[in-house]
Write a structure and sequence with these properties.
Elements lengths: L1 H15 L7 H34 L14
Helix pairs in contact: 1-2
Length: 71
């Protein structure tokens, strides 16, 4: 849940950044840092989802026959 909250706060920050009154050079730096942070969080979400899918695919699905032999 921490990554999701961080992404939400970062999105709100990026949306409000043009209206905060920073100098143009600072604003560019803050946008660059925010963009790199979003890229990093997206990479973390991707690796987490890929690990979850690989884990689900490795489960062996077994079949149990309910018919008694000899009938």
């Amino acid at each position: 849940m921490r990554k999701e909250r961080t992404l939400l706060i970062l999105g709100i920050f990026v949306a409000l950044l043009p209206y905060m009154g920073f100098y143009e050079s600072w604003r560019k730096i803050l946008f660059m840092i925010s963009g790199l942070s979003i890229i990093y969080l997206a990479y973390l979400f991707y690796t987490e989802a890929k690990a979850r899918l690989d884990k689900d695919e490795n489960k062996i699905k077994s079949f149990i026959d309910n018919i008694k032999s000899g009938e």
